[in-house]
Fold each of these.
Amino acid sequence: MEAHAAIAGSPPEEKPVLDLVLYPHRSLSPQGFLLLMGGIAGLSFMIGLIFFLVGAWPIVGFLGLDVAVIYGAFRLNYRAARAYETIRLCGNELEVVKIDARGRRRRYVMPSAWLRVDLEARPRRTSRLTLWSRGRALEIGVFLGQEEKDGLADVLRDGLRRATLPAHLTVPDSN
């Protein structure tokens, strides 16, 4: 956690209108993964034992290879799940920070007054959620499903509306 010291004469840091963190959805927990891999390994062992007993021992190696490939695919999937995005709308700017699976960080800052949220429908695929500002585009939430993108677009539009209102006007919370 970072500590910010206020400089004398500088305005206090504004409270963010939006402060979101987007994570890819993973339906299998680590415990579920262990149970699934245990079941696959046990089943492969039993099938391999049957083939070994009837004299088709080379099949055992292929069953072991199957287990190793499934394990490797799940490990790659879990590593990709470490990627996430943060979206922070504060005052007159929107900041998007994208952290990839390797921990590399990219930061994008856009003025909120010029920002447009675009949800582009694509046939037979999830839509594309893009932020546009002064002719530049930034796609966000690539790993989200359709319903999640729809909800995020609504939240962003509402947040932008709140951020661009004059100080003497307020929008009631929808909670």
Amino acid sequence: MKHFDYIFTGTGLSALMTVNKMVLSGKFKHKSILLIDENTKKTNDRTWCFWEKQEIIWEQSISKKWNSALFANKDFRRNLDLKPYHYNMVKGSDFYKHVFDLISKQRNITFVNQKVLEIEESENIILLQTDSESFSCSKLFNSIYNNQKVENQSKYPVLQQHFIGWFIKSEQAVFNPEQAIFMDFSVEQRGNTRFMYVLPTSRTEALLEYTLFSHQHLKKEEYETEIKKYIQNLGIINYEIIEKEQGSIPMTCYPFWKLNTKNVINIGTSGGWTKASTGYTFKNSDKKSTELVSFLHTETNFTKFHKKSKFWFYDLLLLDILDRKNELGSTIFSSMFKKGNPTLIFKFLDEETSFPEDIQVILKCPKMLFIKALFHVILKQIK
């Protein structure tokens, strides 16, 4: 059985960001690191988007930037000037290549394409069993999501951001490549929070995603029927589907950090790194991975890593509303974006606003909904 200082179970966004930053720091060359994943991460299996003011270390993975976005529902459309932000798109295949190119040059890092079957933790060592080997380590970073603990509780709402997306190439030049469609709630809501999300890369090419914030997944045909309708309404007659993607991201304020131990930390979705109220993952994981690498320089006890913020509570209020009245998502987001300052909203969603700035954003939302949610959440928490 081979022993490592650090093992990462799962090589998703959070794990690869963390390892990448460990390498760049130059302070972990003496540590042996193992990455384990049943997926080789060589396909374009997902797309991440985030907004940013300046260039970052992931710049070479960004395939498209927009300075403008559109928010719409059945009653109004608003063009959002994002400056000083850019809205950025990162394809999974580009990101994986970026990180694995760096990792492959490190003598202290090993990647194995295996499935983790069992993890056993004792006081000073962690044992792992894969489908073909056994390993041990001193510290474990887990990003393999286990939904059982989250689903088998009722204190914290659990929704899913679920979607199917098509990358298409149209014969008709209908897209504006300078503007992303951030949320288009003009699609039928049918008792849920449903919207189209469109990322144009040229006049004839775009990613279109039919997205829901709700509890239950749909049949595949339902997502694709809505995408076809939307394409038809854009005036597109002939088009080719280049790629398809689909996903489901848990939206919950469940306290994942309470599952951390001295030597095992849950990261990524498994660690609550996904922004609970929106499902955005890239920016949050970027911040958290930086904090984690800095933490590793001075601390050894993973139970000390997490710090709960006011934004966790804001997210909990929104999820409480959508959990009980899922059809109100369009109303809430529309009220926020109809007259709100878009750069302030993005700053708020990035969890970088001061309390007075928080109030400016929150006051744009339906007040009674959130006041009722406040009392409901408080009562639920003290039970």
